Predict the structure.
Amino acid sequence: MRRSMLFAVQVLILSSLPVQAGGICKSGEYFSDYNQRCEKSVLQIGAGDVIESQTIDQLKSRWPVTRLTLSKSPAYGEADKKIRSYEGVRLRDVLASLLPAGESIDNYVLAVTCLDGFDPVLKPAILNKLKTSEALIAYRQTGISVGPGVSKDGLWDLVSAPWGIVSPGPFYLVWSDPSGTYWEGWPFQIKSLRLIPTKKYNEMLAKIEPDPEFMKKNPKSAVESGYDQFRGKCIICHTLNGFGGKKARGDLMSIFKQLKQPGEAEALIDAMIKNPPDGMKDILDVKFSPADINHLAEYLRHMGQRAN
Ligand code: HEC
């Protein structure tokens, strides 16, 4: 195979590295753009319905600390020529640990959720790139310090997102080779990574997808937007129509079936997001616009009606 000259890559495995100074947060924390304060960096990882929270120290003690140097960082635009180094753990190592014994990654998808609401599902087309290139779940960039263009925690070069200039932390997935992986494979502000058998993922979609009349409209229907939100931000803990996470008891379908008064569903979601019960506190650092809440309500109301 011909090696790409453009994306010369250096991979180093390191046992320990000095902690970067200069940021306003303590080691193991990141600065949240949404809450405007330091938060603990916690990555949720899992396979199927089992999910566990990992701090950076836990990640470091479980998998080899690895550094990846990129001569091209596609999220920074065509004109950007800066060489960036990242420190993290290898996606390949993490997936190998998560994958049940004897199973092949070819039969799985990787559902990613992010603080900013970008929640891609990485299919085998991208995951197979791990066979020929390296991907790092980075928890910081190295060789930078606080200043213009750097996040307040001193851990990242700020990046341009559709809604403004943001920090890619707490976790950013970077690849040694952008071709075939960019942009879906480069989520930033990662909150969770979950392996789901492709078959189960497709069955789940069939159970929680809105009625066809709401799907693939231009512009997108509120119900479909809510469905996107729900898949990305809620399903990891909640069951709906028999599918999804098991962290919350009960099925949201039966709860929303009862909420028929105008505004009732919106009010419950708004209250849960702003003042979450134990077990849902994780949601506090996720970004929600008022429209997001309305869309979630439209979708869950629709699913509740289906239960009748
Ligand atoms: C980190 C896990 C987690 C996430 C993510 C999460 N929830 Fe929850 N949620 C919970 C837990 C735990 C409860 C408490 C109820 C329970 O124990 O069953 C709860 C309660 C609720 C309730 C009250 C109904 C009930 O079952 O008591 C609603 C409504 C709700 N969540 C909606 C949402 C929505 C909408 C999202 C996505 C925007 C979401 N949740 C994301 C864990 C989570």
The longest helix spans residues 290-306. The radius of gyration is 20 Å. Confidence is low (pLDDT under 50) at residues 1-8, 15-21. The longest strand covers residues 135-142.
